[in-house]
Amino acid sequence: MNNTTSFPTILLIDDDDIEAEGIQRAFRKSSIKSSIFRARHGIEALELLRSSKIEQPYIILLDINMPMMNGIEFLKEIRMDKHLSTSIVFILTTSNNQNDIASAYQEQVAGYLVKSKLDSQFTSLIELLTHYSKVIEFPPSNTSGTNNVFKDKK
Fold first, then answer.
1. pLDDT over threshold 50, residue 30
2. In what order do the strands lie in the sheet containing 111-114?
3. Cα separation of 71 and 93, whole Å?
4. Strand partners, 103
5. In this structure, are residues 39 and 11 in contact, taking their beta carbons and an 8 Å threshold?
6. How many other CB atoms are there within 10 angstroms of residue 10's CB atom?
7. Is the distance from CB of 89 to CB of 139 less than 8 angstroms?
8. pTM of structure
9. Residue 80 pLDDT > 80, yes or no?
10. Architecture of domain 8-62+71-94
């Protein structure tokens, strides 16, 4: 991705409405323009991704502790899915539990961010993601152009 390319889509997966609004507000206040989708748990996020509503490139910001399907369960599911396995995921959570950190990195996350270490306005998160999106190459996108690519899961 180069400097002339638009910022990737963000999929925010977090069940906490206040935290999610804070992150969305930080993106709105920043100079970057990005589509932001939100899911409240892993099952809802999988439905969004498999429906092809979220176009590549995208970055997933994932909480660990959520109802129905937690962050680690979500990671395991997308890593087993050949169409989602290369998804770029940053953990964004309140948990600094060493088991959570180890489990997340075993599922190839790009980074593990503890919310309490970020500033209250999430500007450091925005700066990190902005720099990251400028210097990395995103996985190739699916070029079939159909929503049917997700029907043949795994």
1. yes
2. 36-39, 9-13, 58-62, 88-93, 111-114
3. 9
4. none
5. yes
6. 21
7. no
8. 0.85
9. yes
10. 3-Layer(aba) Sandwich (3.40)
